[in-house]
Amino acid sequence: MLTGCLKTAKDVQMKLEELGHPMSYQSAINILHSVEIYAEIKKKKPLLTEKHKKARSAWAKKHQYWTPHHIDVTVKHGSGVLMLWGCITSEGPGYACQIYNGTMNSEVYQKILGTSLQDTMEYYGLNWETSVF
User: What domain range is 30 assigned to?
Assistant: First the structure.
């Protein structure tokens, strides 16, 4: 299997039978799994056409002498986190609320429900008894 001669678990099972070790197909799979050999599905990828290859080659030749001053530096990730709570009603969007310390616990959630959600319900004239959450 490791040398590439045996491609499948069925090949392993048949080879072991030839060597005098008969076993089921499932046993062959179990043995392969025990040594951490697993089947993998080949990843699908688009085929490169001649047009793609020529375009890539032309781009590479055009830009082969680029130096760092040709490249704009960009920020790859933000420096902070913004956490929001919001709701949507059948009448339209509700009030949003920023969660400042980045942690949502029961006290913060109850406060939001008592303020932002309550304000939204009052703004649209919605009834608590007929609303679904």
Answer: 1-41
What number of other Cβ atoms are within 10 A of residue 97's Cβ? 19
Is 0.70 topped by the overall pTM? no
Please tell me the distance from the alpha carbon of residue 62 to that of residue 123, in angstroms, as a whole number: 60
C-alpha torsion sign, points 13, 17, 21, 24:
positive
Q: What angle do the packed helices 9-18 and 25-34 form, to 10 degrees?
A: 110
pLDDT of the residue at 2: 54
As for how many domains the chain has, the answer is 2
**Exposure string for 98-126, b = 16+ CB within 10 A, e = fewer:** ebeeeeeeeebeeebeeebbeebbeeeeb
